[in-house]
Amino acid sequence: MKSLLSLGLVLLSTTLFAQNADDVLGLWLVQDKDAYVRIYEEDGSYFGKVTWLEEPYNENGNPITDPDGKPILEMVIMKDFVFEDEEWVDGTVYDAELGKTYYGSMELDDYNTLKLRGSIDSFGLLGRNESWTRLDER
Question: CA of 9: how far to CAs of 12, 14, 18, 109, in Å?
């Protein structure tokens, strides 16, 4: 009886946290709390664009840019994620401060917390994680 109850609780918790492809859509506050990224869907893939920066201009009044001189505000920094097995995979994440692109994956911890992983290898072994907070209800 005890194992049946445990199995029921596991199944219930899995059902409560099941994710749909579009659950990731919306406006997100990045981990450092200095930017917003809008995640959107286009032709079945998911992308993320910087829509707000805490400091969009440098001390000379010029837009903050990546190492190539491209403005970060309105830059698409997440590309080509696809939804598979309750996570978004096979995308890329651009680090605008370093000017480097990484393999990316993401999943929802809960509806308001996004776990993003950028890694130098496609297996996700060498990289870093960030936790973003939802700002809107799509």
Answer: 5, 8, 14, 18
Q: Which residue ranges make up each domain of the chain?
A: 20-134
Q: Quick one: CATH architecture of 20-134?
A: Beta Barrel (2.40)
Question: Whole-angstrom Cα distance, residue 130 to residue 123?
Answer: 17
Structure tokens at 126: 């060498």
Q: Is the pLDDT of residue 54 over 70?
A: yes
DSSP string, 61-104: SPBPB-TTS-BSTT-EEEEEEEEETTEEEEEEEEETTTTEEEEE
> What token pair was written down for 118?
């950028």
Q: What is the pTM of this model?
A: 0.84
Task: Specify which residues 38 forms β-bridges with.
Answer: 27, 49
The tens digit of pLDDT for each residue in 93-114 reads: 999 999 999 999 999 999 999 9
